[in-house]
Automatic annotation (TrEMBL):
This is (Na+)-NQR maturation NqrM. The chain crosses the membrane at residues 6-24. InterPro entries: NqrM. Keywords: Membrane, Transmembrane, Transmembrane helix. The keyword Membrane applies.
């Protein structure tokens, strides 16, 4: 049981240190290799015909972008 508690405390310590580092740098957490964009994949679901849920989400994102560009001052 003491091993579990020690491992848990160490894990919490690392989370605390990472959160302090994030607060100090104010930099977004990012991967080291660039993710799917490096491979030329624009979305996580790289299928030809996305599902209905994905289509609704994409339409909502496009509508939000259109509204933001329409209401832009500059």
């Amino acid at each position: 049981m003491s091993t579990f508690i020690a491992a848990f405390v160490i894990l919490l310590l690392f989370f605390l240190l990472m959160s302090i580092g994030y607060l100090i740098k104010r930099k977004a957490v990012e991967g080291s290799c660039g993710g799917l964009g490096v491979l030329g994949i624009e979305k996580a679901c790289d299928c030809d015909d996305p599902c209905d849920k994905r289509k609704r989400r994409m339409a909502a994102e496009e509508a939000r972008r259109a509204k933001l560009t329409k209401d832009r001052i500059i």
